[in-house]
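Quick one - inputs below.
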Amino acid sequence: VIDIRKLTAQTGKFTFDPGYTSTASCESQITFIDGGEGTLLYRGYPIEQLAENTDFIETAYLLLEGELPTSEQCAEFRNNITYHTMVHEHFNKFFDGFRRDAHPMAIMCGAVGALSAFYHDSTDINDPQARKVAVHRMIAKMPTIAAMAYKYTVGQPFVYPRNDLGYTENFLNMCFSVPAEDYEINKTLADALDKIFILHMDHEQNASTSTVRLAGSSGANPFACIAAGIACLWGPAHGGANEAALNMLMEIGSVDKIPEYIGRAKDKSDPFRLMGFGHRVYKNYDPRAKVMQKASHEVLDAVGISDPLLDVAKELERIALEDEYFVEKKLYPNIDFYSGITLRAMGFPPSMFTPLFALARTVGWIAQWREMLEDPNQKIGRPRQIYTGAAKRDFVPMNQR
Ligand code: ACO
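Output:
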């Protein structure tokens, strides 16, 4: 057995903090969360006010530049993003290498990583102009790539970006427009999706953002860093929770089966957890979940459907919030609890929920990546470990084992 005290004396002292529950990895001016109060601020502005009063482009500018844009700044930024929405024509062929039934997140991990093979001219991280172009390219091309991933998996032809449309309208058009059929963009749906994107844009040092920063700390190019973030986001404990939450609501199916699932969530011998409940930082209601619940109603009204899963969700929330186990552990619905119902009503299959999250979070990832590079204290991320393996021993030849 290794003597840890002797080892730390040799290697210097360090903290042991599994899951980084109380370790700050960086300084940042982008996003503030007060988990006890249930507050989320982007550059000081409450998320509720931004979701109500701004659009995707305006909030993206705020996160990147630190201040709300003037109308001229906003128009210029909108123009820059619109200019970069296309992907290289050869990029289309890249998709043919994926299986028809690939998960869109699997496609996105590969396709976004491949951007560095197409856009060499914005991979020099030491050139501020190249960094700026990389930021614009990343934000502009994500909807195109996410829509292509969707079209590929449903076997429909890709739809090219339309620069006469707004950011979110263009994305809806690329996803749902089919040849020889008019697709009419529903303004309520486009506004609700825009709001959903704003809610997902940044969330300080979550697992995927930390992954982007860690990848970027070695000097890796921005496209490779975002691909790393996408891979991390895919997990069901993180961005994959929206898909998992909807699957869980479908499995529960009716209000009378809720007590059985609440019982399972509390049973420590059962690995089942209520998906869409709990958060590492929020020990109060997730402020994004409240906006999302309202958006759910707006979308369901706009499409004129009454989804029985919304009744299951509301009743599940009501019962869980009164249950001693959930109250004691401060487990409240998070943003993912209502987002699945909303996105489903818009026509997205569950497999597209996490790609939509990735699209929005790209703004936060790239803002944090740039902030990290501009930090004079920036160093390569290199955590330490507590070694618990075998003590030093001599090699044993195979015939003596
Ligand atoms: N259902 C039932 N019990 C839960 C749940 C849940 N959803 N979440 C946490 N708990 C319990 C744990 O079993 C644990 O109980 P214990 O103290 O008796 O062992 C306690 O609450 C603390 O849980 P941890 O896993 O230690 O908390 P942590 O902060 O590490 O995890 C997490 C947070 C991963 C979000 C967790 O709550 C979870 O798995 N939730 C479901 C998945 C989900 O909704 N993820 C989305 C997160 S938001 C986002 O990424 C956008």
